Amino acid sequence: MKYLKYYGLALFIIALDQAVKMLVHFNMEPGMMGEIPVFGQWFKLHYTINPGMAFGVELGLTYGKLVLTLFRLAALSGLFWLLNRLIQRNAKTGLLVCLSLVLAGAFGNVIDSIFYGVLLNNAPYDAPSPWFHGQVIDMFFLDIYDGELPSWIPFMGGTHVSLWPIFNVADASIFTGIATLLVFRNTLLIDLTDVTNKPADPITSNTGIDGLPREQNEPGNFRAAGSEETAVPGPVQSSNEE
């Protein structure tokens, strides 16, 4: 049961991410033509695809996409192992939820990279293969600022800045998990470093809370260190003889 709630959360985020991407792909026109304002002009739905990482970051190599996808798969394996170990060690709920969000977001974008080039035919025209070269679907457009910074700002005054990230549910899940870990690092990340030294859950372990095998913790089966086994007598019943 303790595994179910965290992996269940991850599966829910993955399903939501894929559902939103499919709705956007089959019901919206790409680019400005299909743009839908949600809150004025600063938050819009905007169908676009990118071949790279979260928020459109990519590797400029011939096989950069393949390298990126393989890296994601390796990172997913490490995250899965870490989350599984932390659940076994009864880590804090906040840490487990954050890692579940990161795991779900990474998995959601890996699905795009591996399959969308084949299923949705959205691999770049020069991709060596549609497999592992699918492009990630993004749709949430935050049009924060696009223009020159005031000249009085030190070092960056007069510089043209464009702040308009376009992302998806998976990106938001990764960002939320990592940001929460950083904000509450004094409690969550300390638990991450200490959890491998914590004893396993005595309910699911073969050892008791004192580290001895369970059978040695039962009455009548105590064995002191460096000594022969000594039975602990049960309560002595006394009788009053007349």
Q: What report would you give on this structure?
A:
- This protein is of the alpha+beta class and 242 residues long.
- It is built from six helices and six strands; from the N terminus they run αββααββββααα.
- It is globular.
- Helix 1 (2-27) packs parallel to helix 3 (93-119), helix 2 (64-88) packs antiparallel against helix 3 (93-119) and helix 4 (169-183) crosses helix 5 (185-194).
- The chain has a four-stranded antiparallel β-sheet with strand order 1-2-3-6. The protein has a two-stranded antiparallel ribbon with strand order 4-5.
- The protein has helices spanning 2-27, 64-88, 93-119, 169-183, 185-194, 214-217; strands at residues 36-39, 43-50, 136-142, 145-148, 160-163, 166-167.
List the helices and strands and how they pair.
Elements: H1 2-27, E1 36-39, E2 43-50, H2 64-88, H3 93-119, E3 136-142, E4 145-148, E5 160-163, E6 166-167, H4 169-183, H5 185-194, H6 214-217
Antiparallel strand pairs: 1-2, 2-3, 3-6, 4-5
Helix pairs in contact: 1-3, 2-3, 3-4, 4-5
Short description:
The chain is 44% helix and 12% strand.
